[in-house]
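Entry for NAP complex. Fields follow.
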Amino acid sequence: MSAKLAIVTGATSGIGLETARGLVTAGWEVVLACRDVVRAEAVRDMLRASDRSAQVSIARLDLASFASIRACAASLLQQHPAIHLLVDNAGVFSDRPTRTADGFEATMGVNFLGTLLFTRLLVPALRTAAAQEGEARVVVVSSSAAAFARLRPHPGMFADGPCGFPGYAASKLALVHGAAALAAELEGTGVSVNAVHPGDAATNIWRGHSLVMCIVGPVMRRVLKAPADAARAVLHVAVAPDLAGVTGAFFGVRGERLRAARYDDLTLRAGLMEQANATWHPS
Ligand SMILES: NC(=O)c1ccc[n+]([C@@H]2O[C@H](COP(=O)([O-])OP(=O)(O)OC[C@H]3O[C@@H](n4cnc5c(N)ncnc54)[C@H](OP(=O)(O)O)[C@@H]3O)[C@@H](O)[C@H]2O)c1
């Protein structure tokens, strides 16, 4: 029997690398969807070195470019008609104003717009896997930072948005809503979409150029838990048998449901998705 196929975005370091490692160890065929192919090749070779039977390949994906996202998704759909698991792990914390290739603030552009566009483009293959196997899963790596976000949907919000922590928190709240919106759209298809906060871990995300990040970043990378520990929370939502059929949820580190009025705000969700759609399909 052939292995089930998982795509993991941002698998060159941190939680994504450990999630990919966990899936390979569990016998999954894994595609590392990464912007830096050279670093991805090093990860692939490392995974193959520790398991000769590992099935690992690479897809070039820059979530800061709609053109790259569309090209990557088209190529994946052509090579893999059925995708059983998508882990939307890639993310950035940008503490200085940076723009995506399409002109959006980079934190929101990568973490929310790019990630959700990529996910939506892969839906046909996720649906095929669900039809064949009974289910397929999307796990969106968000953050408890979402609890501190301020989001007010309006035209131009993705170009005007803040960077730094306000932008990061907003992008992670947007991701919770984007995941829930897609979960509702896919209700009854066997494709589940859930978000997860993996817990704070010592990874490259704790880097930046501001004075605060230069001081706080190195401390965080010393005191926080290992990326492999955070990956466990992601892997749980990705493969736990008791979560089959569960969709539209936001899970915490221990698999608990994270609940707050802001995660269920349907007016915010509708406005957000309307603005996101306008960026993906400009009139
Ligand atoms: N670490 C924490 O404390 C923590 C807490 C809550 C949530 N999270 C979330 O966990 C996820 C993984 O982050 P991490 O902590 O493991 O940090 P990380 O080590 O910096 O990993 C981030 C990954 O995302 C990739 N990435 C960044 N921009 C990209 C782009 N434009 N296109 C494609 N890939 C891109 C990076 O690729 P490069 O190697 O090319 O930079 C890297 O592989 C993120 O979504 C983060 O927000 C982390």
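NOTE: Residues 9-10, 12-16, 34-36, 39, 61-64, 89-92, 110, 141, 143, 197-198, 200-201, 203-205, 227 surround NAP (CB under 6 Å).
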